[in-house]
Amino acid sequence: MNIINAKIYTMEDKIIPNGYITVENGKITAVGEMSGFAVTSADILDVNGAGVYPGFVDAHSHLGMWEDGLGFEGDDGNEATDPSTPHLRGIDAVNPMDHCFEEAYRAGVTTVVTGPGSSNPVAGQLAAIKTYGNRIDDLIVKEPLAIKFALGENPKGIYHGKNEAPETRMATAAIIREQLYKAKKYLEDKQKAAEDEDFDEPDYDIKCEALLPLLRGEIKAHFHAHRADDIFTAMRLAREFKLNYVLIHCTEGHLIADKLRAEGADAVIGPLLCERSKPELRNLTPKTAAVLHKQGVSIAICTDHPVIPIQYLPLTAGLAVREGLPYEEALRAITINPARICGLEERIGSIKPGKDADLVVFEGDPLSVYTTPNMVFINGFRVI
C-alpha cells in the first residue's frame, strides 16, 4: 500500500508537507517527498493533503482490566489480598472484547500500556498491547513491559481497611524494599549455583522470578506516585536497587521540576481532566506537563483509563497545549515520547521505515475536541 499526497508528521524531528508512505506486511518500508515517489503498486491511497500521524500511545492505562459498565464482575485490576504481587500478569486479566478497545482505536490510540492497579505496593506486570483484535496474545507488543509499584494513598487506603500493613508510607516502601531484596538474593543464589556445582540452586519462587528481568535491567519499574515525597521515595528505591524507572502520574512534579531534571527522570503525566478526588491530588494542575518540559524533563501524557476514558488521550494533550505546552511537544507526548519512555521506540511512536504501520489520518487538528480520525491503520490494516 502507498499513502500519497499526505502531510506527514513523522515525529522524527521533521514534517513532510507533501509526501508518501509505503507499507508492506504491516511495516513502514519507505517515507519521503512526493517528488521522490515511484509507483511500485496499484494499491494507492490518496489522502489529498490530510495529515498523517503515528498511532497515539497511552503509556499508562488499565484498558481491559476494568470492563466498561460492569461492577465486581468486570473488575480485575486489583488483587487486594496480598500487598506484594509481582507475579501477577496483566495479560491474564485484560479483556480485548471490552468495547473501550474500539473507542481507543477510533480515537487514533493504537498502543496502550495496561495492567494492574495501585492497591498493592508491588502490583504486578504491565504489558504494551495494540488496541485492535480479540485475542490478547495477538495484541502484545511487549510483555512484561514493566513492574508496577504503587506509593502514596492507594495502598494505605486499601490495607488500612483490612487492619494490615501497609498502613503508612513507611510500610509501603518497606514492603517494596523487602521484596526487591529477596529477589536480589534469589538472583545471586541462582548465579552462584550456575557457576558452582556444589552450590544448591534456591527453591523456585514465582515472586522473585517475576522480578529478575527488572533487576537485570531488561524491563523498567513504573512507580505510581502523585505527591512529591512519594516521587522522591520512588527515586530512592530506584537508586538503591539500580532500577531503570518511570514516574507515573507525577502530579506534584511541577513543584520539584528542577530535582526531576537533575535526576534525569522520565515522567508520564496524567490524568489531566480528573477531579481532585483525594488529598494527594490537591496540587493537580494541567500545567505540570508544560512546567516539566520547560525544565527539560522528558514527558508523556496518559489517561489512566478508566479514570479518563481512553478516547480522550488526544484531548488531554490539547489541554496541555492550552496550559503552555508547545503544540509539537504535545504531539510527541502521545507518540514518540511514550514509545521511548517505555522502550518501544524501535517499533512504534514515529513514521519511519522499519516501524509498525500504525498510522492515523486527520483532516483537522488531532488535538481538537471537534476532530476525529478519517482513517486508522494498525499493523498496516485499516481498522476505520
TrEMBL record:
Pfam families: Amidohydro_1. Residues 52-378 form the Amidohydrolase-related domain. Gene3D superfamilies: Metal-dependent hydrolases. GO terms for molecular function: hydrolase activity, acting on carbon-nitrogen (but not peptide) bonds. InterPro entries: Amidohydro-rel (IPR006680), Metal-dep_hydrolase_composite (IPR011059), Metal_Hydrolase (IPR032466), Metallo-dep_Hydrolase (IPR051781). SUPFAM superfamilies: Composite domain of metallo-dependent hydrolases, Metallo-dependent hydrolases. This is Imidazolonepropionase. It comes from Acetanaerobacterium elongatum.
